[in-house]
């Protein structure tokens, strides 16, 4: 899932909020200067004025986009812009009060002190916050980007990247020759254009930036990236791109970005809030579930209570996935013995109809007996520790199924699309049949459908459906 940058007035919502806070501080100080150490919010008329000032300040910022290019503005231009903001807010507020004929209830001294203090505080805080934002931008985790360009264009392209940009180039694909293994401008040449998709499929790459020229044929490569759900930025000389595309600025260039889907920072922030709240509640419950099953697990199969397995997360990042151990400690070592019984014929996932490695499973007089491990799986009790992964940000409440390393190593281009989104405890695959689905391509199709149609409302629907599925023990595994 590509995180699209905010555009318009929301792009600098932090500066807008900071200006609103500065205005409220100015309002309080003006009242204190006039009336002594008494807060203005005790009077209904001044509470109304406080609310009016905030609303007007937000409306002016949104309508006139007063924070446009705020990080690039020099001190003098920032001075002028702050004056404009203060004057417009003051003028609109006074006009509003005049139209309602309520101006006489307010002190003129306070009304003139507010814009003066608003300018001083607002201008100072903007300059200070700019320094903080720029410092954070330099140190924050940046998207790893592969550059695809003609060799002669590379120095110019790299020179336009600023320390505050959201990207960092980690490799180069030359369009005019095969220089694999060489270095150019301090970056490795990782592949030629023909092998670039294979490289991206196997390595940790967040995005691709293409600087096209007349001789460059990148149609197939773009389609391969689309299959993998790797966002592609194309400098604005290229056209004819299918899918969800939009214009933005990357590395100093105006580009067309194409991606299977994208999410705004606000959407991702809401999703993360849900994950933190759900992860916290789930982790507390998980502790009690672990304590409840621990004695029986220890009794029937000595070893650790928790099972840790390396899984592949978003864009190929590896992490340790936690579960309550429902198998014997040598289950992974014995996996090779049962490959022939794997009900997923393509081998892209490993599932057995009856798994002897599960705690309590045994054959008695020719009958297949299930035990503790199957009971935990039937009620999905073994999956509760995954809420620890959610809390740590490695997984989400809702997402795609995280593949094992050996599954991931066999991925084709369109399989990689599943890694464009953070893996989840539940997802469209789990609530559409869970273990009953044995065709890996069907799993990929459902995960891709989830990514292409993602929204907060879809997550809510899946969570509700998950509760119903677990309660009914419908296809649990």
Structure in words:
By secondary structure, the chain is of the alpha/beta class. The chain folds into three domains: 138 residues, no CATH class; 117 residues, 3-Layer(aba) Sandwich (Rossmann fold), CATH 3.40.50; 208 residues, no CATH class. It contains 13 helices and 16 strands. The strands form five sheets. Strands 4-5-3-2-6-7-9-8 form an eight-stranded mixed β-sheet. A two-stranded parallel ribbon has the order 1-10. Helix 1 runs antiparallel to helix 2 and helix 3 packs across helix 4. It is flat.
Taking pLDDT < 50 over at least 5 consecutive residues as the criterion, the unreliable ranges are none
Biggest sheet: strands side by side, in what order? 4-5-3-2-6-7-9-8
Task: Report the radius of gyration as a whole number of Å.
Answer: 29 Å
Compute the number of helices: 13
Order of helices and strands: EHHHHEHEEEHEHEEEEHEEEEHHEHEHH
Sheet-strand content, in percent, reads 15-25%
The rough form would be described as: flat
The number of domains: 3
Mean pLDDT: 86
Structural class: alpha/beta
Helix content: 40-55%
Beta strands, count? 16
Distance between the termini: 27 Å
- Main sheet specs: 8 strands, mixed
Short description:
The chain is α/β, with parallel strands linked by helices and 477 residues long. It has 13 helices and 16 strands. It has an 8-stranded mixed sheet with strand order 4-5-3-2-6-7-9-8. A two-stranded parallel ribbon has the order 1-10.
